[in-house]
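Exercise 3.2. Students should predict the tertiary structure of the chain below and write it as structure tokens, then compare their answer with the key that follows.

Predict this chain's 3D structure.
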Amino acid sequence: MDALLTGLSLAVTPENLLYAVLGVMLGTAVGVLPGIGPAMTVALLLPVTYNVEPSAALILFAGIYYGGMYGGSTTSILLNTPGESSSVITALEGNKMAKTGRAAQALATAAIGSFVAGTIGTILLVALAPTVAEWVVVLGAPSYFALMVLALLAVTTVLGSSRLRGFIALALGLTIGLVGTATGQPRLTFGNPLLADGIDIVVVAVAIFAVGEALWVAAHLRRRPLEIIPVGRPWMDRADWGRSWKPWLRGTAWGFPFGALPAGGAEMPTFLSYVTERRLAGKHRDEFGKGAIEGVAGPEAANNASAAGTLVPLLAIGLPTTATAAVILAAMQGYGLQPGPQLFEAEPELVWTLLASLFVANTLLLVINLPLAPLWARLLRTPRPYLYAGILFFAVLGAYSVNFQWFDVALLVLFGVLGFAMRRFGVPVLPLIVGVILEPRLEEQLGQALQLSRGDVSALWSEPVAVIVYVVVAALLLWPLVLRLIPGRQGPERLADAVDALEEEVRR
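Answer key:
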């Protein structure tokens, strides 16, 4: 408790408070604008924030992450166009509420639900992250290697509709991570001395998330002007409060554990929350499909709770479970920080300031953004060509500023085209970026394990935790096959198909 109070006193200093406000505002703005997510924004800001104190930069990024989770609900409700994939479910009932003149109530339950879930999620994060870190610090290299294998496979096999495409993306990421002379021998440098130190993760992240996404979205620009439903000041009456508070809590219960799991993400818990609320709606069940407030309250709470859950494995183990977490991990490595159990011992002031700032950011989201909902709606009128031209400009500037070499700009273009092609052919980008980030650590842990055992491969499963993790890995790989053999059971692919069907319903 003393550490948290110390962190809170540092989080509310004028400088850190300014970064928190900036992060929340920026995150909400990028969440509102379709196609510009928090991962892209954090990637674009990576080169800019290298001259900022690490604690201030991480507070900024955390504000963007939380704000982005909330901002996506605005476009889902007012436009039926989710700014984030995690806000797709919100559009199902939220937009129908808006069309029946209840946009204000939909926005209010989304904002308050996000605050409730974010606060509970942050309390759980504060309680669990140090405990998990204390547990992980005693693990040896074999167990740590197994955990990273689990994270890579989970991100690869769970996300997307095709495991083959996921493994292709992972192979690309691991290959990019191999470039350089980490072992003393040049690997994949093609005789180019500029590749001797490897490819900077900032260049890869900016290219894949910013350039690739900007090119992809620009290629699908709407030709007709957006029709925005007018909204007044968000508010809820007593009946709305009565119908919302239980879905907020149930959504939190779905969102936090899924966020903490490798590849849990926010899409699946929001879907499960929506299904849960529809089944428990009772006399209001007939309103589902026509604008039920429970269908907005639950998924939005699950969405924000998952964001808090994501930070548990990131801070305690050093494993990212979402695209934004992966870019934040890259930022921490750029500051010379090593996320994981040692972080709590080496940088306690930074960690607790970051955790305390999450409470501040969550409160700011409610205080600042709820009255500003009509203003965020107007942001959607920004001409998209100007918007994406600006993104490409800052992407080039950021890549050049990494080493002040045009070679990095050439790599930016190359990986930007790769990012566009991956979206074109439905290849998920998260396995690639996680592969690039984790490859050096995966190699380090593998080397340590084999070095201590003098090359004995069986050392990789010599610890109980490693054995358990490999059993989970095997179950993860074999579970879909087992489910196919059981008649009438719904496997992950069918769940993914159900999510896709809901997304298709939103687009109509």
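Discussion points: The two ends are 50 Å apart (CA to CA). The longest helix spans residues 103-136.
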